[in-house]
Amino acid sequence: MTCSSVQVQPYLLEALEEKFTLHKLDTTTEPDKAARFLRTHRDSIRAVVGTAFVGADAELIDQLPNLEIVSSYSVGVDKIDLAKCKEKGIRVTNCPDVSTDDVADLALGLMLAVSRRLCPIDRYVRSGLWSKLDFFSKQFSGKTVGIIGPGNIGMAIAKRAEAFGCPISYFSRSQKPACINYNYCPTVVDLAANCDILVVACALTPDTRHIINRDVIDALGPEGVLVNIGRGPHVDEAELVSALLEGRLGGAGLDVFQDEPNVPEELFKLDNVVLMPHVGSATVEARKAMADLVVGNLEAHFLNKPLLTPVV
Amino acid sequence: MESIAVLMTKPIYSYLQAELEKRFKVLKLWEAQDGSRFLEDHNQIIRAVVSDGGTGLSPELMAALPKLEIVSSFSVGMDKIDLGKCKEKGIRVSNTPDVLTDDVADLAIGLTLAVLRKLPASDRYVRSGMWKKGEFKLGTKQFSGKSVGIVGLGRIGQAIATRAEGFGCKISYHSRTPKPESSNYTYYPSVVDLAAHSDILVVACALTNETRHIINREVIDALGPRGVLVNIARGATVDEPELVSALVEGRLGGAGLDVFENEPNVPEQLIELDEKVVLAPHAGSGTEETRKGMADLVVGNLVAHFEGKELLTPVV
C-alpha cells in the first residue's frame, strides 16, 4: 500500500509496517520519484492511507488499478475524490469522533487566546516588557458564540462555550432539534451580525466553499472574531486578510488555511490573530486513536469484515 | 465631596483616576518628590487610600495617616493589607470581588489550554516560517476529560470548576473544609493527595499565612512529570525556586503562570522554557470590561462610605 503524506506519526507507521507492506510516498516534495514509484508498483497497491493534506485524487486513483480502499488519517475527506471511489467500488474510511473533543478544545483555546491576547502577553513577559504592557484584552465569558455547522464538532464547541456563560447561535441548512436552546439564524450573514465570535465547524463541500466571504466578515465587524477549525477554503482568505489589516474585523483564530503550509505573511505582524499549523487533532491521545482506526479499518477490509468507520 | 482627600499610592488605571478626580481631591503619592514629606504635609486631610492588590496598604503608610477611614482596593486579593490592624483601628476596607471572577477563571482555562496544546509555541512556529519546512512535531496533550484539581474552591475556584466540567474534566479540590454544596467534586484534605490525583492542578486560593508556599516540593513531585500547574492566585502560594527546578529537570510537565513571587520579575529559566511554560503578566482581571467594573466598585465604595451608607463590597 502507499502512505502518501509528508509526515505521519511514527506510531501509525509502525503499526502499518507490522501488518502490511508499507510504501511511503512523498508526492508533494518529491513528485518525480513518486511518479516513478507508482508506475513500478501500480499493480500491487491495494490500499492508500491519506491524510488531511494529501488524499487520493482522481489522478492517483487512475494510476492504481487494484486499489480497493482509501483509509484516511483525518476526519475531513475533501482531499479524496469520493465520487470516483464510489464509481470504482473503492471503499473509503476516515476518523470521525476520536478527534472531536480535541478539535473543540482547540476552538475554545483559539477563542480564549484571541480574546485574552495570550500569545502576545506571553511574548511581552519573555521580552522583559511586562511593565510596558499598555493594553487590556477583551472578556470572553458571556460573549455570543455563533457556530456554522452544529455537527459533532459544532455541538462539542457549543457545550464548552456554554460553560463560560456564552449564548449560542448557529447556522445550518435546517433547524436542529438538538439545538432547541440555541438561536437559529437562517443565513450566515445573519449569524455573523448576531454573534461576537463566529466559528466555522462544518464540512468542506462545494456549497460551503468561501462560506465566509466579504459580506459575512463585514457583518461580524470590527469587534468580531472569526475562528476557523474547518478547512482553509471555507474562508475567502484574501478578504479575511484585508479585513484584518484594515481593522474591519476584530480578530481571528485560524488552524487551517487556503494553501497549507503557506500562511499569508501579512498576518504575522498582527497581535489580534492566532495562527496554528493545522493541529486540531494533533494531541498524542487523538493521534493514537486515529492511527488505531486507520489500521482497524484496513484490517477489517482485508479480513472481509464490516468497516469500522466507512464514508464510501 | 470634592474636598475629601483620597490618596492614590500608584498610577493604577486612567479611567479610575478620572472617576476619582470627578468626585474627590486626589493626591498622587508617586508624583511627590519626597514621599514622607508629602504624607506629613497632607496627613491631616487624607481620609481614604486607593491602592491595588500588589501594593496594598503598608504598615508604614497606615501609621502615617492618622485620619484614614477607608482603604478601597482595586483588587480582590487582600494579602498586602493588615486586615486585623484595620479592624482594630476602625478603618474600613473594600475590595472588588465578583466582577473579576469570570475573567480570572477564563484565564485559568486559557492558560491550561495554552500549555497542553502549546498554543504560543505553535503560533511562533507558523510566524517563523517553520511550518513550511515540516509539521509541528511537539506532542501536545488532550485537555478534555482530564482530572482537574483546584486548590481553593471559592468564587474563582468554583468558576474554574464549572468551565472545566464543560470539557468533561473530573473535578477534585482542596480547601480548609469540604464544601457540602460541591458534593459532586472529590474533596482531598491533603494538597499532596490532590496533586497525586490530578493531571492539572490550579491554584485559586487567597494568600494567607497558611497558604504561603502551599505548593511546595512535595506537591510538585506528586503532580509529576506529566502534570501541569496553573497559578492565577498569588505568586507566594508557590515555592518558586522549587517550581523552576522541577520544570527545568522535567519533574513537572508544564506550567501556566499569571503570578510570581516578585512581580514583575520572572525567573530567567522560566523565560527560556517557552514550550512547556506559558506566562502572563498578572492579567487575570485585565479585560476592558472587568477593569472598568472594578474601578466603578472602588469609586462606589468610597462614595457609599462618605455618604454614610453601607459599603458595596466590604472586607472589614
Automatic annotation (TrEMBL), chain A:
<dbReference type="InterPro" id="IPR050223">
    <property type="entry name" value="D-isomer_2-hydroxyacid_DH"/>
</dbReference>
<dbReference type="GO" id="GO:0005829">
    <property type="term" value="C:cytosol"/>
</dbReference>
<dbReference type="GO" id="GO:0051287">
    <property type="term" value="F:NAD binding"/>
</dbReference>
<dbReference type="Pfam" id="PF02826">
    <property type="entry name" value="2-Hacid_dh_C"/>
</dbReference>
<comment type="similarity">
    <text>Belongs to the D-isomer specific 2-hydroxyacid dehydrogenase family.</text>
</comment>
<feature type="domain" description="D-isomer specific 2-hydroxyacid dehydrogenase catalytic">
    <location>
        <begin position="8"/>
        <end position="311"/>
    </location>
</feature>
<keyword id="KW-0520">NAD</keyword>
<keyword id="KW-0560">Oxidoreductase</keyword>
<protein>
    <recommendedName>
        <fullName>glyoxylate reductase (NADP(+))</fullName>
        <ecNumber>1.1.1.79</ecNumber>
    </recommendedName>
</protein>
<dbReference type="Pfam" id="PF00389">
    <property type="entry name" value="2-Hacid_dh"/>
</dbReference>
<dbReference type="InterPro" id="IPR006140">
    <property type="entry name" value="D-isomer_DH_NAD-bd"/>
</dbReference>
<dbReference type="InterPro" id="IPR029752">
    <property type="entry name" value="D-isomer_DH_CS1"/>
</dbReference>
<dbReference type="GO" id="GO:0016618">
    <property type="term" value="F:hydroxypyruvate reductase [NAD(P)H] activity"/>
</dbReference>
<dbReference type="InterPro" id="IPR006139">
    <property type="entry name" value="D-isomer_2_OHA_DH_cat_dom"/>
</dbReference>
<dbReference type="GO" id="GO:0030267">
    <property type="term" value="F:glyoxylate reductase (NADPH) activity"/>
</dbReference>
<feature type="domain" description="D-isomer specific 2-hydroxyacid dehydrogenase NAD-binding">
    <location>
        <begin position="108"/>
        <end position="280"/>
    </location>
</feature>
<dbReference type="GO" id="GO:0009853">
    <property type="term" value="P:photorespiration"/>
</dbReference>
<keyword id="KW-0521">NADP</keyword>
<dbReference type="InterPro" id="IPR036291">
    <property type="entry name" value="NAD(P)-bd_dom_sf"/>
</dbReference>
TrEMBL record, chain B:
<keyword id="KW-0560">Oxidoreductase</keyword>
<dbReference type="GO" id="GO:0005829">
    <property type="term" value="C:cytosol"/>
</dbReference>
<dbReference type="InterPro" id="IPR029752">
    <property type="entry name" value="D-isomer_DH_CS1"/>
</dbReference>
<keyword id="KW-0521">NADP</keyword>
<comment type="similarity">
    <text>Belongs to the D-isomer specific 2-hydroxyacid dehydrogenase family.</text>
</comment>
<protein>
    <recommendedName>
        <fullName>glyoxylate reductase (NADP(+))</fullName>
        <ecNumber>1.1.1.79</ecNumber>
    </recommendedName>
</protein>
<dbReference type="GO" id="GO:0030267">
    <property type="term" value="F:glyoxylate reductase (NADPH) activity"/>
</dbReference>
<dbReference type="GO" id="GO:0016618">
    <property type="term" value="F:hydroxypyruvate reductase [NAD(P)H] activity"/>
</dbReference>
<dbReference type="Pfam" id="PF02826">
    <property type="entry name" value="2-Hacid_dh_C"/>
</dbReference>
<dbReference type="InterPro" id="IPR006140">
    <property type="entry name" value="D-isomer_DH_NAD-bd"/>
</dbReference>
<dbReference type="GO" id="GO:0009853">
    <property type="term" value="P:photorespiration"/>
</dbReference>
<dbReference type="InterPro" id="IPR050223">
    <property type="entry name" value="D-isomer_2-hydroxyacid_DH"/>
</dbReference>
<dbReference type="GO" id="GO:0051287">
    <property type="term" value="F:NAD binding"/>
</dbReference>
<keyword id="KW-0520">NAD</keyword>
<feature type="domain" description="D-isomer specific 2-hydroxyacid dehydrogenase catalytic">
    <location>
        <begin position="6"/>
        <end position="315"/>
    </location>
</feature>
<feature type="domain" description="D-isomer specific 2-hydroxyacid dehydrogenase NAD-binding">
    <location>
        <begin position="109"/>
        <end position="284"/>
    </location>
</feature>
<dbReference type="InterPro" id="IPR036291">
    <property type="entry name" value="NAD(P)-bd_dom_sf"/>
</dbReference>
<dbReference type="InterPro" id="IPR006139">
    <property type="entry name" value="D-isomer_2_OHA_DH_cat_dom"/>
</dbReference>
<dbReference type="Pfam" id="PF00389">
    <property type="entry name" value="2-Hacid_dh"/>
</dbReference>
